[in-house]
Design goal:
The protein is mainly alpha-helical. The protein is built from 18 helices and 4 strands.
Length: 529
C-alpha cells in the first residue's frame, strides 16, 4: 500500500513541477567532462560529446565492486567478532561462582552484545561514507542521476549488512548448529562449536526482540542527537573563530549566513538513508518486534521538528535541483518490501514456536486441540552416562540418569538413538508449507492492490491528456499562421480558412490524425513558393 500510494504521489509531483522525462534531457556532469578525453557523436543530437569506452567502464566497475565486496566481508567479520564475544561472555559467566551471574548470563550477554554491535555500526558508518564517495568517483558516472544511483546502491549495501546482519544471524542461524549434548562430531568440528552460542531455552525470538529494539531505538536517539547538535556546534565554532564582533553592526547578514552549516550533496541523502533503514526495521522483523512501527512514528514526529529547526536556522539555503523522481530509492524500498515478506515468513515458521504448537495441537495432543503437555513433548532425552570427562562440571554427584534438551530426537535406547523422530519431519514439512502459502497469499494480495490502485490519479491523467490536446491544437494554429504570413510576404493569394482546414488542417489537427489526409511535401512546397 505504501509503495502504490507513493507512486501516485510521485506522479502528481512530476506533473505539477513538469518533471516528466527530465532524465532524458539531463546534462553531463562537469567531473565526467573533465576526466573523459575520448569523444563520440551523440546518436540523438548528432553532436560530439565526451564518451568513456566500454572496456574502461567495465574495468572501473570491476575495481569498485571488488572493493565493495571486500568491505562487505569486513562487515561480516565484525558480526562474527560479536558472536565470539557472546560465546566468551556466556562461558565466562557460567564458570563464575556467583549464582546471580549464572542465572542472568543470557540476558547480560544479549544486552551487552547488542550495545557493542551498535557501537560497531556507528564506527563503520563513518568510514563507509568516505569510501563509497571515492568508489563512485572512480566509476566516473555520466550524469548526476547515475552518480546518485551508484552512490546510493553501494551505501545501502553497506548499511544493510551493517544493521541487519546480526539480526539475520540471531533469527535464522543462531543455535542451528546444535546436534545433541553428547554428539562427538559437534565437539570435534570447529564450525559446529558455534553450538555454544545458543538461544534461550524459550527460543531465539526474545533475543531477536532485544537486539532489534536496542539497535533501532539506539540508532534513532544517536542520529537525532547528532543531527541537531552537530550543526549547532559547527555554527558556534565558525562564529567564534571568524568574527569577534558578532554583536556589532559590522557583522553583516551575508556573513551570518556564510557562518551557517553548509548544505552538501549528502545532506538530503542521509535523510533518505535514515528513513529507508527505518523502513527495513519496521517491515523486515516486525513479527519479532511489533512495537517497531510505534517507535518509528514517534521518531518521525520528533525528527520533523528537529529537521525544520536545523534547515531553517542552522544551515545555509540549499541549492535547488530538478529531479524526475526519487531515483533508485524506490527500487530499494520495493526490494525491502519483498524481502520482508520472506523474512517474516521465516521468523513465524522457524524462529517462533507457532508451527510446532499447531502441529502438536492438531496431531499429537492427547486431549484434543490444546497445548497441554507441549513442553514435555518438545524435549528429548539424553543419557548422562554418555558424557565424557571433559564435558560438564567436575562435581557430578547427584546427577540424574537422563536429562532433557530441546529437540525432536529419539530416546537413547531406541534402535536409532538420537535420530530425528517422525514429529520432526511433520514440523519441518508444516514449516515449508507455511512459507509457501504465506508468500503466495501476500504476493497475490500485493498484485491485487497494485491492480486496484492506478499509478497515476485519474485527475492527473485527464490533465495530461488535455495538455497534449492543447499542445497539438497550438502547433496546428501556429503552423497555419506561419503559412498565412509567408504568403502575405510573397503577395500570393491566400485560400480561405475552410480550404486550409480541408487541405492542410486535416493532417495536423488533433481531431483527425489519419495519414491518408496528411498533405504531401509537394503540396506544402507549392504553397510556400
Amino acid at each position: 500500500m505504501f509503495l502504490e500510494l507513493w507512486k501516485r504521489k510521485q506522479a502528481v509531483i512530476q506533473w505539477q513541477w513538469d518533471l516528466e522525462g527530465y532524465e532524458e534531457e539531463e546534462e553531463l556532469r562537469p567531473e565526467y567532462e573533465e576526466k573523459v578525453t575520448t569523444t563520440r557523436l551523440n546518436p540523438v543530437t548528432n553532436k560530439p560529446e565526451p564518451y568513456l569506452p566500454l572496456w574502461n567502464q567495465i574495468t572501473r566497475l570491476v575495481a569498485a565492486n571488488s572493493v565493495v565486496i571486500l568491505m562487505l566481508c569486513i562487515v561480516i567479520a565484525a558480526m562474527f567478532s560479536v558472536i565470539l564475544y557472546r560465546m566468551a561472555v556466556v562461558i565466562a559467566m557460567h564458570q563464575t561462582e556467583s549464582d546471580l551471574f549464572r542465572r542472568n548470563a543470557k540476558m547480560v550477554t544479549s544486552l551487552t552484545a547488542a550495545c557493542l554491535n551498535l557501537m560497531v555500526i556507528i564506527i563503520l558508518n563513518y568510514f563507509y561514507e568516505k569510501l563509497v564517495m571515492w568508489l563512485t568517483n572512480l566509476e566516473v558516472p555520466r550524469t548526476e542521476t547515475e552518480f546518485e544511483d551508484s552512490f546510493t546502491l553501494k551505501m545501502f549495501l553497506f548499511q544493510f549488512i551493517n544493521y541487519y546482519s546480526s539480526l539475520i544471524y540471531i533469527a535464522f542461524f543462531k543455535g542451528r548448529f546444535f546436534y545433541h549434548p553428547g554428539d562427538l562430531e559437534a565437539r570435534t568440528n570447529t564450525l559446529l562449536k558455534l553450538r555454544y552460542d545458543m538461544c534461550d531455552p524459550a527460543g531465539c525470538l526474545f533475543e531477536l526482540f532485544v537486539q532489534l529494539a536496542i539497535i533501532m531505538v539506539g540508532k534513532q536517539i544517536f542520529n537525532n542527537a547528532l543531527e541537531i547538535l552537530y550543526p549547532i556546534m559547527l555554527v558556534w565554532w565558525h562564529k567564534r573563530i571568524g568574527h569577534d564582533n558578532q554583536n556589532s553592526e559590522a557583522y553583516t547578514r551575508w556573513e551570518q549566513d556564510y557562518d551557517l552549516s553548509a548544505y552538501t550533496r549528502l545532506s538530503l541523502f542521509n535523510e533518505y538513508l535514515e528513513m529507508v533503514i527505518q523502513y527495513g526495521f519496521v517491515t523486515i522483523f516486525v513479527a519479532a518486534f511489533p512495537l517497531a512501527p510505534l517507535f518509528a512514528l514517534l521518531n518521525n514526529i520528533v525528527e520533523i521538528r528537529l529537521d525544520a529547526y536545523k534547515y531553517l536556522t542552522q544551515c545555509r539555503r540549499p541549492r535547488a535541483e530538478r529531479v524526475q523522481d526519487i531515483g533508485i530509492w524506490f527500487g530499494i524500498l520495493k526490494g525491502i518490501t519483498y524481502f520482508s515478506v520472506f523474512t517474516n515468513a521465516l521468523v513465524i515458521s522457524y524462529t517462533s514456536d507457532f508451527i510446532p504448537r499447531l502441529v502438536y495441537m492438531y496431531g499429537y495432543s492427547p486431549e484434543g486441540t490444546t497445548l497441554k503437555g507441549y513442553i514435555e513433548n518438545s524435549l528429548a532425552l539424553f543419557n548422562t552416562s554418555e558424557y565424557t570427562e571433559d564435558m560438564g562440571p567436575d562435581n557430578r554427584t547427584g546427577w540424574p540418569a537422563t536429562c532433557r534438551y530441546r529437540a525432536y530426537r529419539n530416546n537413547p535406547d531406541d534402535k536409532n538413538p538420537y535420530g530425528f523422530t517422525i514429529q520432526f519431519w511433520h514440523v519441518f514439512t508444516a514449516r515449508l508449507a507455511f512459507i509457501l502459502i504465506f508468500e503466495h497469499v501476500v504476493f497475490m494480495l500485493t498484485g491485487a492492490v497494485a491492480m486496484a490502485i492506478p499509478d497515476v490519479p485519474v485527475e492527473v491523467k485527464n490533465q495530461m491528456i488535455r495538455e497534449k490536446k492543447v499542445e497539438k491544437e497550438t502547433l496546428f494554429e501556429k503552423e497555419k499562421s506561419r503559412i498565412r504570413n509567408e504568403r502575405r510576404v510573397h503577395q500570393i493569394s491566400i485560400p480561405s480558412d475552410e480550404h486550409l482546414n480541408v487541405d492542410l488542417g486535416e493532417g495536423l489537427s488533433p481531431h483527425n490524425s489519419s495519414r491518408a489526409n496528411t498533405p504531401s511535401p509537394s503540396f506544402l512546397r507549392n504553397h510556400r513558393s
